Amino acid sequence: MLVIDAAVTHLENLSSLEEYLANLGKKHQTVGVKVDSFSAVGESLLFMLEKCLGTAFSPDVREAWTRLYGAVVKAMSRGWDARKEGE
Ligand code: HEM
């Protein structure tokens, strides 16, 4: 949640988090996290937001959160791919 918070705070300049997120992705790969598990975490995040926000969780809000989470996962995946290629 701290990382999602940081992503929201840096929404206008997400690239400033690129290096940190790539390293975080690398760390997850090292501890055995599968890339597929990220979709389960994303679905949980959206489910939690839907439950908390109720009717305020409009299609636009859902789309915005889906994009934000997607950007975080994409940036984390960069660390993943780089590691695989290096092996
Ligand atoms: C976008 C999604 C995720 C974010 C933002 C995230 C973020 C983080 C952060 C910030 C840490 C602490 C890293 C540190 O100690 O330096 C961490 C650790 C960890 N995460 Fe995630 N995580 C995500 C998804 C997942 C998923 C899908 C799994 C597994 C199903 C997972 C498993 C773990 C584990 C096992 C650790 C502990 C690693 C250790 O032993 O230090 N994470 N995660």
Can you tell me about this structure?
This is Nitrite reductase. Its main location: cytoplasm. Keywords: Cytoplasm, Heme, Iron, Metal-binding, Mitochondrion, Oxidoreductase, Oxygen transport, Transport. Belongs to the globin family. Residues 1-81 form the Globin domain. The structure is a single chain. This protein is mostly helical. The protein has one domain (18-86): Globin-like, CATH 1.10.490. 76% of the residues lie in helices and 0% in strands. Helix 2 (18-30) packs across helix 4 (59-86) and helix 3 (37-53) packs antiparallel against helix 4. The relative contact order is 0.19. The mean pLDDT is 91. Bound molecules: protoporphyrin IX containing FE. Protoporphyrin IX containing FE is lined by residues 3, 24, 27-28, 31, 33, 37-38, 41, 72-73, 76. Protoporphyrin IX containing FE binds at residues 3, 24, 27-28, 31, 33, 37-38, 41, 72-73, 76.
